[in-house]
Amino acid sequence: MADVATPLAGTELDHELERMLAIERFDPPDGFREKALVSDPAVYERAERDPEGWWAEQARALDWAEPWTQVLDWENAPFAKWFVGGRLNACANCLDRHVEAGLGDRVAYHWYGEEGEQRDISYAELLAETKRLANALLDRGIKAGDVVGIYLPMIPEVIVAMLACARIGAPHNVVFGGFSPEAVRERMEFSEARALITVDAARRKGKTAAIKPAVDEVVGGLEHLETVVVVRHTGEQVPMQDGRDVWYDEIVAAADPECPAEPFDAEHPLYVLYTSGSTAKPKGILHTTGGYLTGVACTHRLVFDLDADHDVYWCAADVGWVTGHSYIVYGPLANATTSVMYEGAPDYPGKDVWWSLVERYGVTVLYTAPTAIRACMKWGAEEPNKHDLSSLRLLGTVGEPINPKAWLWYHRVVGGGRCPIVDTWWQTETGHIMITPLPGIVPTKPGSATRPFPGISADVVNADGEPIDEGTGLLVLRRPWPGMLRTLYRDDERFKEVYWSRFGERTYLVGDAARKDEDGYFWILGRIDDVINVSAHRLSTAEVESAIVSHERVAEAAVVGQPDELTGQAIVAFVTLVGGGDGDDALREDIRGHVAARIGKIARPKRIIWADDLPKTRSGKIMRRLLRDVAEGRELGDVTTLRDPVVMAEISEKVAAGEEEE
Ligand code: PRX
Questions:
Q1: DSSP assignment of 434-481, as one string?
Q2: Is 538 touching ligand 1 by the criterion CB < 6 Å?
Q3: Of 332, 368, 374, 379, which has the maximum CB count within 10 A?
């Protein structure tokens, strides 16, 4: 066993972390490098010399029913086609081929329920249930190209649902279980979903939250929605609508167990996933089959140094986010991985539940978000120290910049000082990891995602699009990559405008600011648009504003992000009331509840500041820049274009007085 550093806690640990802050570079530990899947840095040059050849080599790791005739068609940029002419079935690549190779008994997921139930689901079992659900969907008239919504908690059925859709070529549209039914309705409407797979109720830290009745309230008017499949999870009594609603267990039991996996074109849509952009309307990110699966499978294998025969891998995200799609479902399954899946929250039933699961299943690779690490830091090293974490050999983070202190805590307390950390930068749009260390060869610096994955071309540019060798600017991607979004669902124009207009149709504008240091390392600084990153979850200021404004007492609202020790950023809302004047705490709570009902709990503003007016330019545009300045405690920037400077003075006073914290 690798040497394990003595567990530390309290002030001793604080002192050690302080000392470690002076360390700028961490080389891959010897014991790790020697056994790593990639141990030769030549992989970068190989991919750079011939990116298409490199990706084709990765694609060959999948099973193709028909080979492609062209790796990349970029003629019609920014609309890319990868593996042109190739045909494959994503579900067969995730399940059938492993079962056929004799891996049917391998555990695909060690599922652990909030109440301590355990289910080990083998590849053969997952395949059998997926085939039945696929047939049941076909029986209900769902066919290739029809969108199927999925609104489920972290239970095994969510995986079955996604794979059953993939098997029959019906793009899924998963909505994060923490989003409100109203958000589900909107996403079903935008994508014209024909079916929705949901649940009777979800568990929330020992309580039960009714889901089906809440869904009923909002989906009634959706003209395309013909079928609602309900998973029986908590056993709650729920109303079922004749002709529309069916029980998951009943249709699965009645379905034919045989369901051939029809191959689809490499560019057949695999899923649409809505994410937040600069406007109130979420963007439907469209991913297709061949390139996406190639990208997620190869990054999952190489970034996590995967040894599928021995590793127990755990991506502690929710399947409702892209991280779950790519690194709980498609990447791990394509690689025949054994994963852990946990239903509940990291602090339920106890603050050591994660660490107890690492010990129970012998987790070797753990992938999570900085916000979770910061929460664990707050709960204290005593929690992880209660458990034997010596099985861990590699740690990953995703979703937001990680502050060096949290990085070091993760490294020292969770990883015992022996595990490399892969800080992986990517987005819903990119489909898979884009900037990351390869753990066996790239030295890490706490807080930096290091360098682009082989075959990826990233740059930091100035406002004119000129590359910056060293310094801060806008992050762009130069070259197409296999998992890239193909468009925004039914909105090609917005796709072109948002990502491919600022620097031309061959340069992808990421929407993040970044710094490149003297070693060419990338440091992601945060969003440049009106998107806030709360606990590694992307939220649009416009979306939150429109939710607030829909409250009957509210006249106007402006939302900005402010730095937050725990959640990375927190939402601050400046609100003017109908008829003017200030509201009270009860109204604040009411507005928060209203936002939770419209979007979801994560979108509740942390601070609500009453304002008589909002700072506007003479043409009436809200100057969010100034609101950000006050929220972040900075000197106000240029106020010369402000229509009425008194407004800002009043707001600054209120913020300084510390009004309004939740
Ligand atoms: O701002 C970047 C941040 O999260 C954004 C993408 O959010 P989303 O599409 O929800 O996907 C999150 C999971 C892939 C990015 O534009 N981000 C993501 N990873 C990192 C990050 N910021 C800093 N470091 C990261 N490793």
A1: -B---TTT--B-TT--BSBPTT--EEEE-TTS-B-SSEEEEEEE-S--
A2: yes
A3: 332
In the prediction, which pLDDT does 638 show? 82
Paired residues of 208 in beta bridges: 203
CA dist list (Å): 254 to 156, 197, 229, 645, 646: 19, 17, 14, 69, 69
CA distance 142 to 195: 8
Ramachandran area for residue 617 (φ above 0: left; ψ -120 to 50: alpha; else beta): beta
Helix, strand or coil, per DSSP, at residue 315:
strand
Q: With H, G, I as helix, E, B as strand and everything else as coil, classify residue 36.
A: coil
Q: Which atom of ligand 1 is nearest to the CA of 526?
A: 1
| Closest atom of ligand 1 to CA, residue 511 | 16
Q: How high is the pLDDT of residue 1?
A: 40
Asked if 295 and 287 touch (Cβ cutoff 8 Å), the reply is no
Give the pair of three-digit tokens for residue 287.
Answer: 């991913």
Ligand 1 pocket residue status of 475, Cβ below 6 Å: no
Task: Tell me, in angstroms, the distance from the centre of ligand 1 to residue 454's CA.
Answer: 19
Q: CA angle, corner 636, sides to 631 and 640, nearest 5?
A: 135
For 255, residues 6+ apart whose C-beta sits below 8 A from its C-beta are 132, 133, 135, 136, 139
- The answer to whether the CB of 444 is under 6 A from ligand 1 is no
Give the residue from 339, 126, 117 showing the smallest Cα distance to 234: 117
Q: Read off the pLDDT of each residue in 27-54 and give the average, rounded to a whole number.
A: 96
pLDDT for 660? 60
